[in-house]
């Protein structure tokens, strides 16, 4: 095969691949840039994450309060049991 024809076919395929890649990847790269810009500005997904973090903090706080109440009840019960005299066996 003639090297000029082979080179022209290779150049044409390379040109088509470059244009096709640009057409396909340009919208994806623009969307990726918009997502990065939102993340840098602190908007977007971080608002939903902040709400989730606040909800988790509230749940942890409620569990802490419940655990404190349980430990107080247990300490009270243990103090009552330690003050009780052992039963006399017949």
Tertiary shape: rod-shaped
Helix content: over 70%
Q: What is the makeup of the main sheet?
A: none
Structural class: mainly alpha
Which regions have little confidence, pLDDT < 50, spanning 5+ residues?
A: none
What is the straight-line distance between the termini?
116 Å
Counted beta strands: 0
Series of H and E elements: HH
Strand content: under 5%
Tell me about this structure:
The chain has helices at 3-41, 45-83. It is an all-alpha fold. The chain is rod-shaped.
Describe the SSE topology.
Layout: H1 3-41, H2 45-83
What characteristics describe this protein?
mainly alpha; rod-shaped; 90 residues
Short précis:
The protein is an all-alpha fold and 90 residues long.
